[in-house]
Amino acid sequence: INEYRTSLRSNRHRKMFDKISAESRRVQGAVQGNTEVIKGIKNILNKDQYFADVLKINKDVNQHKLRISMTSDGQVNLNSMHKFNPSELYNLGKEGRAQLFSSLGTASVNTSNVPTRITPSTTAVTGYLDGEEEPRGMLVGIHPGEIIRIGTLLVRVSASGAENVALLLENLSQDVYANLMTVAFNVLSNLVPEEIARLRLLSPDEDLIVQTVKFVFNYLRHQRPFGDPSRETDNGIMVVLAEFFQNGMIRQDTILHLKDQLLNWVDSEIHQRRQQYPNKKSIVCAKCNGILFV
């Protein structure tokens, strides 16, 4: 994203890019918002014309108190609900835009603004090669201390959680990483409180995000969690990931199927622990029937 921003021809275009990409992150959260922007910029045929048009309509957008973001197909989204081609909005003329923008109403903002610039977060990992110390930068897509909105959930990312996700996915390409995180967050957003409680009870010391990402990664790699290592490469994961997207959008049916697989795995793990530790005391949650062995 930062490389694309640098390639824009003027500071005014870069400011417009900062504005619409920040709004995408505010609405959808950091990871999903950045994923939307990455897909969107790939679908913009003429970036100079695109941001010139956005710049020309920006004053009217501000006057009508609208919020503008980018969509995965390279359009703009007004108030997170109305998708338009920016050139078509410009061609409406000032009066046409005023009439249209008035009909949309002002934006309803329930979450605070996010930074307009992305600062890559890296955790230094020290490695050794031939007796010499070699620093290795590990890009983390979720940042320690960040609070991410996932559906109706607000999830805080711990330092250990961010590091565990980065280590787990460090060999994936940027696109595969972004798509995998999108799938994982969509699965998590579809869990109801009782199901989340079951997942927490299964591994109370592990972050909710880490648990979900770990399951999704192993499922995509093996087509079932912790199965035989048959899909070790990035390309193998890409093949399975393709089933979760259609025309740049998440397929809800595949997300719900993956959610069912996750819950089935949780139940099987609980059953296995019962068999493995028959003498341990189990605490049953009254809400979700989840079991914690102590």
From TrEMBL:
The organism's place on the tree of life at top rank: Eukaryota
Protein's name in the database: Pastrel
